């Protein structure tokens, strides 16, 4: 007998969903039965924790452009999804959560868990998704699935939740009465594309032509619009500075002479220095967030600006742009490319080369360090030597993002780096690697996490083993929460809640990984780095390489300078109010 779990599984398969990540419950077992009957078209990846299902689905979505699908049961399963959903919402990642629910006629008993595991799930998910729906009947379900895909993939993409009651999931599916039909436009984001007006494009092209030192800031919206080819063509004509946000890495190869790396306090010194010298900043698929806009010190008052974004709310959120190009990033760049004549800025390009070389000299000094515990740049340089262009690198939050951005270059255009920057929460890399490896089974996946972040999801290493995935997990272990220690030391002169070790507690991540069935290596000395990485890369399965690193190392350049120069940072006074800088209007170049 066909049931509604079959209907849902069939529609997912017709929408091109190959993988569903999650954990079953009694209320959602019909879905798993339906998926199992279609194993040649769609399969389920069993996770150890529902929150990690959302992170795995997030990686699937970023690498395919399709909505990542995760499934959880009612109550305890549902309430573990917020971290992954908020990451996807803030990072504009299309995602569909299929959530179990109590039977419809039990919904009045959900309060206080009178009906086991019940709570107001619809109100809960409304706050962390683009939209959420409770399915009221079998006949309504197909249209609600179509709506879920349309909303998840339409500009601006994001997560949605489809809450399906137990009695509906288990109901008989009469294929003659309830037909399956999909909207094939919503298989992949973006669902629709709009172009900016011709007048706005003409204004932007004229502004670019007047610029002497143009800069292009590429955000995650470049990858969301599949616009790296268009960025490359415009960048070649622009002949100016190109930098990216963390999620925008790979918009252009970072080996190009005008590419200066990642604009972020954790990112490239050259990018941070050069962006301040630009007379025009083009924000392309970037929402000029706190980190990319360097705590909103950018754009500078004298800098003209162009914003390119499909979300109308991003044009003027923290500054009024000189020109707004409201439309799909790819379509906007195509129109610019058609009208823009090749530019020439030899003095600006020479300045870019000069500052980049100064930054590289600083990095070479860090890489050569023989210090113990290990200096992270030494580890990351060795890792960079072993990465191929097709490997996928998954970053966890905090300092790991900076070490990756500074020392693992994006050698080709495309999304090869996955960052948890929508919310910036710890614990992203291990489950996201599962999603990435399941999506790209022929690729090698490399994660980089600190010991604090790695501790969050260590149980999912067993999933990597069970799925026999080619994942190399790099753990930079300094025995503490590095960011918190640095913050407490600089601003409060009192490190009191950052230590993850004590005299009686020295967690060994390599030993834990070996116990879960992975190949594991522990590295303390510089001459051990290369052999351990070689063995991990040669292994046809998941591995963990744990490096003991200096607990004072930081990729944040402003703190590095302060530490080198022996300077001090004034402590904030009690009652200090932190506020956004004044909103301003960008000028028009003369």
The helix/strand class is alpha/beta
The count of DSSP E runs of length 2 or more, i.e. the number of strands, is 20
The domain count comes to: 3
What's the number of helices?
A: 22
CATH architecture heading of the largest domain: 3-Layer(aba) Sandwich
Q: Given the C-alpha coordinates, what overall shape results?
A: globular
Return residue spans where pLDDT drops below 50 for at least 5 consecutive residues: 561-567, 569-579
CATH superfamily of the largest domain: Thiamin diphosphate (ThDP)-binding fold, Pyr/PP domains
Query: Roughly how many Å is the radius of gyration?
Result: 25 Å
Question: Major β-sheet, in short?
Answer: 6 strands, parallel
Give the mean pLDDT. 93
Please give the share of residues in helix: 25-40%
Measured by DSSP, the beta-strand proportion falls in 15-25%
Using the coordinates shown, work out and report the CATH topology of the largest domain. Answer: Rossmann fold
End-to-end Cα distance, whole Å, is 73 Å
- What is the CATH top level name of the largest domain? Alpha Beta
EC number: 2.2.1.6
Pfam families: TPP_enzyme_C, TPP_enzyme_M, TPP_enzyme_N
Cofactor: thiamine diphosphate
Family: Belongs to the TPP enzyme family.
């Amino acid at each position: 007998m066909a049931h509604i779990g079959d209907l849902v599984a069939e529609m997912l398969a017709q929408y091109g969903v190959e993988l569903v990540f999650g954990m079953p419950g009694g209320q959602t077992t019909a879905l798993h039965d339906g998926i199992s009957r279609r194993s040649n078209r769609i399969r389920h990846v069993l996770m150890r924790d529902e929150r990690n299902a959302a992170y795995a689905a997030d990686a699937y979505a970023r690498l395919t452009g399709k909505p990542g699908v995760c499934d959880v049961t009612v109550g305890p399963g549902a309430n573990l999804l917020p971290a992954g959903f908020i990451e996807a919402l803030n990072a504009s990642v299309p995602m569909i959560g299929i959530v179990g629910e109590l039977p419809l006629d039990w919904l009045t008993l959900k309060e206080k868990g009178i009906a086991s595991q019940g709570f107001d799930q619809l109100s809960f998910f409304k706050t962390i998704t683009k939209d959420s729906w409770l399915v009221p009947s079998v006949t309504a379900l197909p249209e609600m699935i179509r709506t879920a895909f349309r909303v998840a993939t339409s500009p601006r993409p994001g997560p949605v939740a489809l809450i399906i009651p137990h009695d509906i999931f288990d109901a008989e599916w009469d294929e003659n009465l309830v037909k399956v039909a999909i909207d094939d436009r919503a298989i992949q984001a973006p669902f629709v594309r709009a172009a900016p007006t011709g007048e706005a494009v003409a204004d932007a092209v004229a502004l670019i032509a007047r610029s002497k030192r143009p800069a292009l800031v590429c955000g995650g919206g470049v990858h969301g619009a599949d616009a790296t080819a268009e960025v490359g063509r415009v960048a070649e004509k622009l002949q100016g500075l190109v930098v990216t946000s963390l999620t925008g890495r790979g918009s252009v190869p970072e080996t190009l002479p005008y590419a200066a790396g990642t604009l972020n306090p954790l990112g490239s010194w050259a990018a941070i220095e050069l962006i301040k010298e630009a007379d025009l900043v083009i924000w392309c698929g970037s929402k000029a967030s706190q980190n990319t806009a360097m705590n909103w010190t950018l754009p500078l008052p004298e800098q003209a600006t162009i914003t390119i974004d499909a979300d109308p709310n991003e044009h003027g959120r923290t500054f009024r742009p000189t020109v707004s190009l409201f439309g799909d990033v790819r379509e906007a760049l195509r129109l610019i490319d058609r009208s823009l004549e090749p530019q020439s800025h030899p003095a600006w390009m020479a300045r870019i080369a000069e500052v980049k070389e100064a930054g590289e000299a600083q990095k070479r000094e860090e890489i050569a360090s023989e210090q113990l515990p290990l200096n992270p740049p030494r580890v990351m340089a060795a890792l960079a030597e072993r990465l191929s262009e097709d490997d996928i690198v998954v970053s966890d939050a905090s300092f790991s993002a900076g070490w990756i951005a500074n020392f693992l270059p994006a050698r080709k255009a495309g999304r090869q780096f996955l960052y948890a920057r929508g919310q910036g929460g710890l614990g992203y890399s291990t489950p996201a690697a599962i999603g990435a490896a399941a999506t790209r089974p022929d690729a090698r996946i490399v994660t980089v996490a600190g010991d604090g972040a790695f501790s969050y999801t260590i149980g999912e290493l067993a999933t990597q083993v069970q799925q026999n995935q080619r994942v190399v997990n790099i753990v930079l272990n300094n025995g503490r929460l590095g960011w918190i220690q640095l913050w407490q030391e600089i601003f409060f002169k009192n490190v009191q809640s950052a230590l993850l070790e004590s005299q009686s507690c020295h967690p060994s991540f390599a030993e834990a990984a070996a116990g879960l069935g992975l190949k594991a290596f522990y590295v303390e000395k510089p001459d051990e780095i290369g052999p351990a990485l070689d063995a991990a890369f040669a292994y046809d399965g998941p591995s963990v390489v744990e490096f003991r690193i200096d607990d004072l190392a930081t990729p944040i350049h402003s703190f590095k300078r302060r530490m080198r120069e022996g300077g001090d940072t004034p402590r904030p006074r009690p009652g200090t109010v932190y506020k956004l800088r004044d909103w301003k209007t960008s000028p028009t170049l003369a």
